[in-house]
Design goal:
Layout: H1 6-12, H2 23-32, E1 41-48, E2 60-64, E3 75-78, H3 82-90, E4 94-96, H4 98-105, E5 113-116, H5 121-124, H6 128-131, H7 149-158, E6 160-164, E7 170-177, H8 182-198, E8 209-216, E9 222-224
Parallel strand pairs: 3-4, 3-5
Antiparallel strand pairs: 1-7, 1-8, 2-6, 8-9
Helix pairs in contact: 2-8, 3-7
Length: 231
């Protein structure tokens, strides 16, 4: 087992692993246990009572955080004609067709999010082998396959995050930076929890939101009480 650093061990002492904290207490603890020299990302992790192997219990989507993520996303848009011009005007970092498809296919990945218009998906589909494993393949469920490229680019730049349940029923989503005001982190946290509650599949049985925690990039997880949130 890897040995934990002294800073992490000291930070761990501040957190009671058996306690489920309210949102504001949890956020303050995450701030206190952030010891890195860089502005750490605060991530929410939720274990959901779903069976991802069943098609009717897949959970995937995207939501715009009210206070953004603290990270500037580099957006690549596959579009042509007027839609390419629209993407450029909206502030997309890279816009193109076959030239960019070939560039990506050759190993170029200097972007964070990919958007494509539906009429480009036949060509973009060839990139599934390289974009899929990185979670970058455009998908209608996350709003990244659309003719409304202006809206898509604007939302991504404003702090849109994607969420997707993994094979173990877990979801991991960034909710901001340690440097954010606590109130802004709380608002982003609330937005994610309410979004996940609304996304509850009708086929899911038993306890849906089994446990939720938040943590800074290099810090310990802090359990959060979400029993007060309503669908």
């Amino acid at each position: 087992m890897a040995k934990k650093g002294k800073k992490y061990v000291d930070a761990l002492k501040l957190v009671d692993r058996e306690t489920v904290y309210d949102v504001n207490e949890a956020i303050e603890l995450v701030k206190k246990t952030s010891t890195a020299k860089f502005d750490e990302t605060v991530e929410l992790a939720a274990r959901l009572g779903v069976d991802p192997k069943k098609a009717d219990q897949q959970i995937r989507g995207a939501v715009v955080l009210p206070n953004g993520t603290g990270k500037t996303q580099r957006v690549l848009v596959f579009a042509k004609g007027d839609k390419a011009k629209e993407a450029e005007a909206a502030g997309a970092d890279f816009v193109g067709e076959d030239d960019l498809i070939n560039k990506v296919n050759q190993g170029w990945f200097d972007f964070d999010v990919v958007v494509a218009t539906p009429d480009m998906m036949a060509q973009v589909g060839r990139l599934g082998r390289v974009l899929g494993p990185k979670g970058l393949m455009p998908n209608p469920k996350t709003g990244t396959v659309t003719f409304d490229v202006e809206k898509a680019v604007n939302e991504i730049k404003a702090g849109k995050v994607e969420y997707r349940v993994d094979k173990s029923g877990n979801i991991h989503v960034p909710i901001g930076k340690v440097s954010f005001d606590s109130e802004k982190l709380a608002e982003n946290f609330q937005t994610i929890i309410e979004t996940l509650l609304k996304a509850k599949p009708a086929a899911a049985k038993g306890t849906y939101m089994r446990n939720v925690s938040i943590a800074a990039t290099m810090g310990p997880g802090v359990k959060v009480n979400v029993s007060g949130f309503k669908m």
